[in-house]
């Protein structure tokens, strides 16, 4: 599922995004290898005196934030001023996310934030949405959701775990169907259709969600404000 992009490019994107963070802010902490660089950099700034709280989007980002010394809070008591998160594909302000199976919590935190900054390497930027759409489903709904995805002309594939026998199980105990739709010409319509299927917990289409894209390159970063 994961696409290329060098560590250097990801680091440049992650570090650039953290410049939007200042004292007193609550920061949504995205998941994945690119967001991890932002968390690392925020930790260094916290150690140097930056006063922030983070809201993690997965077990991974929670652990990284703890290791980095970032104080944590929850959506029960705080609203993120900004969220910094990665993506698997970016077309303008619309994203496909969920390569790390964290898109349900990411969507909750990212859309609650006043501002969503996406961190990406150039391999993620596309002209058309054509990446398979991850769909988190309740385990008992795997077959019924698959059938409905096929009615939408999609091809669902249960995501298998690399490190154990059997399927990927999300932080919330759900399964993931990677659904191939070819080129998605109307992401809003597909998002609505997927959300309406009983048993779908969340899908990875983030339609019109991004406010800024920080694209890390070997030399530096390009920032697109949307
Ligand atoms: O579920 C995971 C997330 O949506 C990630 O933000 C996305 O897969 C991008 O991850 P990475 O920066 O490792 O490519």
From TrEMBL:
GO MF: ribose-5-phosphate isomerase activity
SUPFAM superfamilies: D-ribose-5-phosphate isomerase (RpiA), lid domain, NagB/RpiA/CoA transferase-like
Positions of substrate binding: 31-34, 85-88, 97-100, 124
UniProt keyword Lyase present: no
Pfam family, one: Rib_5-P_isom_A
The keyword Magnesium is assigned to this record: no
Catalytic activity, as annotated: aldehydo-D-ribose 5-phosphate = D-ribulose 5-phosphate
GO biological process, one term: pentose-phosphate shunt, non-oxidative branch
Keywords: Isomerase
InterPro entries, per the entry: NagB/RpiA_transferase-like, Ribose5P_isomerase_typA_subgr, Ribose5P_isomerase_type_A
Enzyme Commission no: 5.3.1.6
Pathway note: Carbohydrate degradation; pentose phosphate pathway; D-ribose 5-phosphate from D-ribulose 5-phosphate (non-oxidative stage): step 1/1
Domain of life, per lineage: Archaea
Active site: 106
Quaternary structure, from the entry: Homotetramer. Homodimer.
PANTHER family (UniProt xref): RIBOSE-5-PHOSPHATE ISOMERASE (PTHR11934)
Family stated for the protein in its record: Belongs to the ribose 5-phosphate isomerase family.
Annotated function: Catalyzes the reversible conversion of ribose-5-phosphate to ribulose 5-phosphate.
Name under which the protein is recorded: Ribose-5-phosphate isomerase A
Phylogenetic placement of the source organism: Archaea, Methanobacteriati, Methanobacteriota, Stenosarchaea group, Halobacteria
């Amino acid at each position: 599922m994961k696409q290329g992009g060098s560590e250097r490019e990801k680091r440049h994107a992650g570090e650039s995004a953290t410049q939007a963070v200042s004292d007193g802010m609550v920061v949504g902490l995205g998941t994945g290898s690119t967001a991890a660089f932002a968390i690392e950099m925020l930790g260094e700034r916290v150690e140097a005196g930056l006063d922030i709280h983070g809201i993690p989007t997965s077990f991974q980002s929670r652990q990284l934030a703890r290791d980095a010394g970032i104080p944590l809070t929850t959506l029960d008591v705080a609203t993120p001023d900004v969220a910094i998160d990665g993506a698997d594909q970016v077309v303008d302000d619309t994203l496909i996310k969920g390569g790390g199976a964290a898109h349900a919590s990411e969507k909750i935190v990212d859309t609650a934030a006043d501002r969503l900054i996406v961190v990406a390497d150039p391999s993620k930027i596309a002209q058309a949405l054509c990446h398979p759409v991850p769909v988190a489903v309740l385990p008992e709904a795997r077959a019924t959701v698959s059938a409905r995805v096929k009615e939408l002309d999609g091809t669902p594939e249960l995501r298998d775990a690399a490190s154990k026998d059997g399927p990927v199980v999300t932080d919330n105990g759900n399964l993931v169907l990677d659904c191939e739709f070819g080129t998605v010409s109307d992401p809003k319509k597909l998002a609505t259709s997927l959300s309406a299927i009983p048993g779908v917990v969340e899908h990875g289409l983030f339609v019109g969600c991004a406010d800024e894209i920080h694209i890390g390159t070997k030399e530096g970063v390009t920032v697109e404000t949307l």
